[in-house]
Every structure is written in structure tokens, then in C-alpha cells.
Please model this.
Amino acid sequence: MTNSPLPQDIQDKLFKSATAAKDTAYVPYSKFRVGAALLTEDGTIFKGCNVENASYGGAICAERTAYVKAVSEGHTKFKGLTVTTDQDDHVSPCGICRQFISEFGPASLPVYLVNAKGETLALTLGDLLPYSFALEQGQKYLM
Ligand code: THU
Model:
């Protein structure tokens, strides 16, 4: 999938925001902190962390927290997403988050996965969820 990368200063801002979001992760059960930062078309950055619950299935991932915050504030067009954790590996969004993100697209959305060492794996939404489900073909990624 073609990726037109965001300028480095924007990538740095997203990483900083994702790291700040990770610091607010509510993870008493898994202790697995995740931070996300979502860049909207108008340049606003929404932060999201994972929020767990004693009823484990009630947990919400960092990516969906960021998306729900943005969409509920009227934003539906996005330019980039950064996800970071405390892991040495690059942790990528779970299946539910991939479907959730794909609701808004675009397929070329840059997705930056940053590991604990600060190393970035640059992907796109299309890389993460090819052949995504949509009710109608034309509805895909709200192109
Ligand atoms: N988690 C995320 O926040 N994002 C993902 O894409 C995968 C998993 C969270 C959910 C839970 O709080 C913890 O990581 C362990 O699964």
C-alpha cells in the first residue's frame, strides 16, 4: 500500500501525544499500557489510552478511545495514527480496532507503530486490514 509519510515534525508530535496518552492508561489487570494519537484533517490531535474494567470484556483499546473522542467531537477525516506501548516489539492494533479504524479510512492512512526503544514501523491502514468489510463497496473508507 502506498504510504505518503507525514512530515517528521508531525510524526514526532504524534509520538509525544501517544506517549502522554500511554501514561494515562488504566490497566490494573493486564498492566499493558497502550497510547494512541490520532491526527485529524484539520491538524487536531486526539489522544487515547486503553481503559480496562473488572469485567474484562469491557476493556476498550487505546485506538478506539482516540477515535471515539475524535468522532464524538465531530471529526471523521483522519491523516495519521500513532500507537505506542512499553514493549520492545511493535504492537499493532487488534482486529476489532482495525475494523473500527477502517470505518473512516482512508486505506492510505499512515499508521506508525512505535516500540519502547522509539523505533517506528510505518504502515498504512490498508496494510493492516486489506479486503476490509463494508456494507457496500462504495462505502469503503469514506473516500
Ligand atoms: N490493547 C489496546 O489498547 N490496543 C490494541 O490494539 C490491543 C490491545 C489493550 C487492551 C488491553 O487493555 C491490553 O491492551 C491487553 O490486551
The CA atoms of residues 20 and 119 lie 17 Å apart. The chain has four helices and five strands.
